[in-house]
Amino acid sequence: MFTRAVSRLSRKRPPSEINDSDGKPGSSQQTLKGTSRWTTSLENLLEDPEGVKRFREFLKKEFSEENVLFWLACEEFKKTQDKKQMQEKAKEIYMTFLSSKASCQVNVEGQSRLNETILEVPHPLMFQKLQDQIFNLMKYDSYSRFLKSDIFLKHKRAEEQEENSSEAQSVAKRASRIYNT
To answer: CA neighbours within 13 Å on the CB side: how many for 84?
Structure first.
């Protein structure tokens, strides 16, 4: 069940526009795509399914993929409406990431660990403090290394080559239209 939720999250479409405080689309954010957008913030990286995929690939090599998996599971958990389903997901998150016997245990401060009894009365923000800790760990540690990693740099180069190739094709098409008319 958890892996399906992560898969659904990884395929989730990012917001089509980011609005500035005046409610109009942000011009700088609107034109940035892919790796260029990922470099602006960890938030932007995590909104992009391809960004999540590449970041997970990097974290797996660093033996810390559980951090992004926990963060994604918490994001999915917050959207849960049904109380019974929320209780099941809360227990699943606890057993997978937070329990002392967890298979993918995340490294959170001891006093922040949840007591298993809280799982009986779950609420959408019950993991928020822990999720924030993990987000900050990723933001100030893993994210900056990711931006310097081979995984990121290779993807960025491939993206640039694809962009240059499509620009060259566009120029060639425009030129052929001009000379063939």
So the answer is: 0
What pTM did the predictor assign? 0.73
Backbone angles phi, psi at 14, to 5 degrees: -70, 160
Count of other CB atoms within 10 angstroms of residue 98: 20
51-99 confidence digits (pLDDT tens): 999 999 999 999 999 999 999 999 999 999 999 999 999 999 999 999 8
Distance between CA atoms of residues 5 and 90, nearest Å: 13
Q: How far apart are CA 10 and CA 76, in angstroms?
A: 11
| Residue 80 CB contacts under 8 Å (≥ 6 apart), including other chains | 86, 89, 124
**Residue for token digits 């559980």?**
66
**Residue whose pair of structure tokens reads 């001891």 in the numeric block:** 110
Please report which helix (H) or strand (E) contains residue 45, including its range.
Answer: helix 42-47
